[in-house]
Here is the input.
Amino acid sequence: MSKPKVWSSTALGPDNPPAGNLARQYAIASFPVVAALTVALGWWVTRSIEHQVIHSAAANVALYVQSFLAPELRNLRVDRALSPREIARMEGVLANTPLGNRIRSVKIWQAPGRLAYHSDHALIGQEFPVSDSLALAWAGEVTASLDDLHDEEDEAEAGLGVSLLEIYSPVRAAGSEDIVAVVEFYQDAEALQDHIRRTRVVTWLVVVIATTTTFALLFGIVLRGSGVIREQREALASQVRRLTELLEQNSSLTARLRGVAARRAEANEQVLRRVSAELHDGPAQSLSVVLLRLDALAQPPPERGAGDVVEELRTTLAASLSEIRSISQGLALPELDGLGICDTVKRALAAHEQLTGMRVALTVDDAQPGQIGASSRQTIYRVVQESLMNVHRHATGATAEVSIAFGPRAATVAVCDDGPGFNVHAMHGAPEHLGLHGLRERLEALDGTLEICSTPHAGTRLVATVPLEEPL
Here is the structure.
């Protein structure tokens, strides 16, 4: 028989991380990604909102320019400068409108970089390098930005010491797409920046809360899945451990059965040799004597009278028959079906008394179980029979006592005598103790035990624990 393969809980994968680490691994792996996405999304949303706010402000200014200032600037198409009268009229327009009240500085550019007007009249007529925003305005685009005021022409605005929104708006001639000038406004941006800052804070809070909530929900799902996986792994590991235990028990029982079978075969051979020896040394010897006496009768004259010889032959044959019956009774069990433990033991004591004339005391617990299986009943009978026979053979004249106690699922049979005792350690393999070896094998096959306590000249105590099987 091949040895069964034993699985271990480590077969679930020692290299695989425990299920409990799944949520932690997810958190470690996903947190940097979520954080990066949060930063990127927050930056993109705030930049988009800031751009949209600035673009809206620039669109309002462009509309203002086309509505109020464009008529005043049409002469720049032919003239090189604005007249003092035109400048005064334009400054009056700027001063008498709500938008104009928020404007801190105004520049009007003529191509390519000449100032046709500046709030600081000393700069009118000067030329400066064309900035990128100014170039885009000359191309027809309205541009706006929170200027850092580092350009050469921004010296006057930088001296104001406030945040300014710089807006470039092209001015087109009436009924034409030709750009005659570019108006550059510097609008007070303190309120705008406060609005942008508040919007940025709210936007970041919304983005962080949204991404954190999403991450928490996903983490909760993974954590719950991790718990389910952990429970399933524990259940599977428990089942594997149980299966391993069952396989180990099966392997142990198989080995025990093989050992019991081997020892049983050996015991059977020894029993046969014992029966053969007893037949040879007992009835066979007696029958040999009978044959010799018959031969003597056939050769006259007989030394003794025929009647004496016949009487001797009858006595010898009767003794041989008694020995044969004794051997037969030891080999076959009497009818025990339907008997309880106490009745089984009493029948064994009666048979022993009839055979040997030896009376044995019996003590039985009151809590006697009901019907038991045939194997348990037969084993108890054999224990009592073999123990008392050993007392009769090896402790002639000794007294014996049998006691029975009951446990939840087993009976304890104790046989004590006050005979000479023997060396228990020397009984292994001894022919005179063959019956005890057979008892031990029978009890082990039923998962019972046999203990023998004896010392020379101090008596013997045999204790057998017999499992009680249910009747079929």
In short: The mean pLDDT is 76. The chain has three domains: 23-196, 282-332, 334-472.
